[in-house]
């Protein structure tokens, strides 16, 4: 079974105006934060609470797969994960997370800049996201992916609601189908960094 969490949360990564700024990757500490954790439960026995406990401590792989290149042309035909200054994601990154004691990783993802006018996510990008998820799983981590800011199209206003809901449903249907054979150690956060057209952060 594929576990799916639909969460709303702000990650505190700054305003939309700062999105194009490069961000250096801080060295990973040799010692992970001390925290209580539990073994990852088997799929047949997993509850949301049990899975959450098994994910402690967790870490965020930020400013990579969600890096947004607004200069176009759209849709992009190659990964933009280095656009904000970080290196391309490799297995070594997740191995270092696991060696430091982390049990889970959130991987923020942008989808819209890789989608056609009709809303189809480019196969190369879906394959890259799956490749990165597989790297994290190979390191023994529980993985969360989301739709993260994504250029700011998730407009939290009544006028935009129908269109936003339809677009979210379309993207997440494609993502769910791509990951339908994965087990409960891959989970989804439906949205993050939702804005309104008044440039107000709402979630």
Explained architecture:
This protein has four helices and four strands, in the order αβαβαβαβ. The chain has 203 residues and is of the alpha/beta class. It has a four-stranded parallel sheet, covered by helices on one side. Helix 4 links the parallel strand 3 and strand 4 (186-192). The longest helix is centred in the C-terminal third of the chain and has 18 residues, at 161-178.
Compute the number of strand runs: 4
Dominant shape: globular
Order of helices and strands: HEHEHEHE
Uncertain runs: 1-27, 29-35
Measured by DSSP, the beta-strand proportion falls in 5-15%
Helical segment count: 4
Mean pLDDT: 84
N-to-C CA distance? 28 Å
Major sheet: 4 strands, parallel
Estimated radius of gyration: 17 Å
Q: Helix proportion of residues, in percent?
A: 10-25%
Strand order of the largest sheet: 1-2-3-4
How would you concisely characterize the structure shown here?
The protein has 203 residues and is α/β, with parallel strands linked by helices.
Topology (elements, then pairings):
Elements: H1 48-54, E1 58-60, H2 91-99, E2 104-107, H3 123-138, E3 142-148, H4 161-178, E4 186-192
Parallel strand pairs: 1-2, 2-3, 3-4
């Amino acid at each position: 079974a594929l576990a799916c969490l639909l969460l709303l949360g702000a990650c505190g990564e700054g305003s939309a105006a700062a999105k194009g700024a490069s961000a250096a990757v801080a060295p990973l500490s040799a010692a992970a934060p001390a925290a209580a954790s539990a073994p990852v439960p088997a799929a047949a026995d997993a509850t949301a609470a049990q899975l959450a406990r098994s994910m402690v401590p967790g870490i965020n792989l930020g400013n990579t797969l969600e890096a947004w290149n607004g200069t176009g042309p759209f849709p992009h035909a190659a990964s933009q994960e280095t656009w904000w200054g970080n290196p391309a994601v490799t297995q070594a990154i997740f191995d270092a997370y696991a060696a430091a004691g982390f049990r889970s990783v959130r991987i923020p993802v942008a989808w819209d800049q890789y989608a056609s006018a009709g809303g189809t996510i480019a196969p190369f990008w879906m394959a890259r996201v799956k490749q990165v998820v597989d790297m994290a799983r190979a390191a023994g981590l529980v993985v969360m992916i989301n739709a993260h800011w994504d250029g700011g199209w998730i407009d939290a206003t009544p006028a935009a609601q129908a269109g936003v809901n339809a677009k979210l449903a379309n993207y997440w249907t494609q993502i769910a189908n791509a990951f339908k054979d994965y087990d409960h150690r891959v989970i989804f956060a439906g949205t993050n960094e939702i804005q309104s057209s008044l440039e107000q952060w709402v979630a």
